[in-house]
């Protein structure tokens, strides 16, 4: 058994004790006869002193040869640092190790960069083993590990059972493209890597496992971006005999534990209807940190306007939407915001400065007196009103509001969670085809057999933190008749849904209880926690934007022998 001292525990109580520790050389400082190195390992740093005076030539020669990132083992006595050299920034800053003997375990040769150097992401990913030695990456990976431990302890206390689900499964239409795996023993047939354990956890509910959870690997073949990776970890849970409030309470309990663990400032979650979120913020993922007013529909003010821009939109039945900031923008700042709106492809942005009861804007000369008076009464404080008109006015106004908050730092500190509920069950895709807003297993609100599908709400709930959806869930369909009806609305006939989902339908027909669940991305949660730009910063070995592993050079071709064993011919 390894009896190892954790470096960050070495303090004054160790003074006079002889210890042996190992690690990487972080820095080297040769002060002529005395060499100082900072020895780094996973648990911290310790200053080590090589006093070469009176030592033999071999000790002196080896001491002077040591370079950063070499791996060494040192043995010596802990002593207090002189008062002028105390480092209060690290736990070991009051002590140092006077080295009596040491071993060089491995030398580092021709490194392309050193940990914590500022280099391109491409270089960092190619030499990930160096990048992972940095303080930042070590902190991030330790945070992921800590949250996984908190998750398991939390669900265990609540009586949940962790059940692993298959990595090789059936390809089913659930959203993104599947990663498929050829089955050698069934030529021409394929497994799929799971996009989520959705169907298996529902089957577990039908199996009598009333409280399930899992930290599970998921795979999705979709375009990557900052908060997406082709493979990621998902904290997954499902509960039988549960209503949405039950699931939401359990989820928030875990999030609250994580926030408390990392001692961050946070608010309790608000709850907002999906439609209200769109009307107030122009998005179903609002960032409640933004110190700018919500959106307001002011179409009624301009219903008889002579201002041609607004008149055209009102005539076409499109809304006029505004929001307000009490920041005193300069003319150059306002011109820059108008330019940014155009660059984003928006239909246009109008600004109106409010000073007392008077309004100033290039557009006020086109407005009637009663319109100006009505506008001035909307907001009591002085500041700037921003107006957007058009078919996508709510979305565009929300986008501009977000941009302004980014450009001018109009955000509160801390974490502002928000539940978005009552989202539509279905929506139309770009081709006019009905598709599920969440997934086809989400329970509807209302009578799915007699209502227009596009008017139905869902028993879904998404958790948004600081403008990022960290996860979502819903009460599931537990009736096979309702599930079949959903498949039919989505354009599947009986043959198609039986072929793809017969195992699920059999489970629903076998006495399946009402149930609901939730899933959120572990890495996305950590990225939000530390305000990181990408989940690649919290994954040990991530893929690039074009889904490559620069460390291993994957994906890569395989041999003809392997392809022949799988009965596969490649046609590129």
CATH superfamily of the largest domain, by name, is Bira Bifunctional Protein, Domain 2
What overall form do the CA principal axes indicate?
globular
Task: Estimate what percentage of residues fall within beta strands.
Answer: 15-25%
The CATH architecture category of the largest domain equals 2-Layer Sandwich
Count of strand segments: 24
Please mark out the parts with pLDDT under 50 across 5 or more consecutive residues, or reply none. Answer: none
User: What is CATH's topology name of the largest domain?
Assistant: BirA Bifunctional Protein, domain 2
Count of alpha/pi helices:
15
Strand order of the largest sheet: 6-9-10-24-23-22-17-11
